[in-house]
Amino acid sequence: MSQAVKETSHFPTEMKRQAYKMVINGEAVEAGSKDTITVYNPATGEAIASVPKADKADVDRAVEAARQAFDHGKWKKSPVGKRSRVLNKIAAIMRKRFNELVELEILNSGKTLMAAQGQVMQAIEDFEFYAGAIVGHRGAVNNVPGPFFNYTQKEPIGVAGQIIPWNYPIMMAAWKIAPAIATGCSVVLKPASLTPITAIILTEICHEAGVPAGVVNVITGPGAKIGTYLVEHEGIDKIAFTGETTTGKDIMAKASQTLKRVTLELGGKSPNLVFPDADLDGAVDGSLFGIFYNTGQSCEARSRLFVHESIYDQFMEKFIGKTKKLTLGDPMSQSTHVGSIISQAQVDAIHDYVESAKAEGATVAAGGDQVKVEGYENGYWYAPTIITGVTNDMKVAQEEIFGPVVVVMSFKDEKEAVKLANDTKYGLAAAIWAKDQGLIKRVSDKIQAGIIMVNTPFSAFPGTPFGGYKQSGFGRELSIESLDLYTETKSVLSYIGGKPLNPFNL
Ligand code: NAD
Ligand code: MN
């Protein structure tokens, strides 16, 4: 890889390595036990590297480092302009090493070049966004009666434990780290064991850019053990979690014991509504991307497709035709549309859902099975799958599959579309394909979801709030709102009248 990169920190320059280390207090460290976890390339099934398998003592070390950095360090007291500059520097280093980051992300996730490029770019833009946003994040002078004066100030919450999933490894790490360190918080980040590599590299880049030791720490290991320990840890003030709804429930219960601040970005089963006046081809292409982007391993995947009965046949003919044209193969190729699944366990889970749909009487209209891809025979691949003849009460319509599987239903009018769309425990996102502005506004108002996409397959950019209603969690990321979630508001009320107050009048 690029030899042109100058050695500017004590971390290895080369991003591709046999063995990665955690970063605790600015140092590259192994687990105390020296145990490791093997990390695979899911497109090929090959082992690519090892990462440390941390245990509780390692978590203690990381929390202690973050605690020291927050309680006694300079970062939170540094001028906001300095923090902003460091965030921009992180982004600049990432830009310089863009292709290496993309390649590494693909190697560990099996996602396509197009997906990885978009996600690394968004990670970069996230740091740039918060570099700007933090400068304008401030308290207020509030209206109070006569001889009083009140101001509020925003203070960083403290040490944030951040736990992230495997589907967007570097992007999720950026979504978590950037707003936290912008406010002056310290971080202990735990990536998913399947995809820890780019989070480690990003943490190293943070140090290279000038983030002081202890402010950003990364630990790797099993979630059920060290994730739980982080959630229960007395030294942690806030937990920011992205992952499954069931894990989120467990985290919320455990975090309540120390009354930690909690934000949860959880699962989804997002509806994609195609109305009769929609641009048909645009709706087909957008719906295709909405489910098969990132191999369907996306929290905001539009995995329930609702098409108005008057255009159903026409829409489905095109949709099925294009789904069958999607190419699977070399993830590094610009012309590959769909990458691999993250693991064989995930392939099996996806396939169980497809089998359950068949058992409940639905029809597989495309795909429906694990596939062998030429040159990638030992990898984990699943054909882009369309299931028709579905009713909204079927398991496959209610539970998050988290793979390239879409279930399709028709609706007869606006009222039924809204009812079906909301008939789920989730509430992350929804897409509307239509031209009638009145209808778009009415439906947007009635849908219980944090993110509405109107005639677009894209759900968010840095600056747009991202988060769910109902059991998709709470809190918003990727936007100004996150800064409030990493800060406490302190109200300072002063009496500034001449004569001392004597409210008891004694
Ligand atoms: P997961 O819940 O299995 O794991 C997420 C992380 O939590 C991992 O790092 C894991 O090691 C850790 N973990 C596991 N058990 C834990 C426990 N008991 N306590 C603490 N930490 C624990 O999620 P996943 O399978 O990695 O990711 C897929 C899920 O993520 C999907 O449900 C998807 O919808 C969701 N997701 C949501 C968003 C969003 O913004 N709403 C974004 C991406 C992914
Ligand atoms: Mn999981």
TrEMBL record:
It comes from the Bacteria. SUPFAM superfamilies: ALDH-like (SSF53720). Keywords: Oxidoreductase. InterPro entries: Ald_DH/histidinol_DH, Ald_DH_C, Ald_DH_CS_GLU, Ald_DH_N, Aldehyde_DH_dom. Gene3D superfamilies: Aldehyde Dehydrogenase, Chain A, domain 1 (3.40.605.10), Aldehyde Dehydrogenase, Chain A, domain 2 (3.40.309.10). The active site is at E265. GO terms for molecular function: oxidoreductase activity, acting on the aldehyde or oxo group of donors, NAD or NADP as acceptor. Residues 32-492 form the Aldehyde dehydrogenase domain. It holds the Pfam family Aldedh. Belongs to the aldehyde dehydrogenase family. This is Aldehyde dehydrogenase (NAD+). It comes from Scopulibacillus darangshiensis.
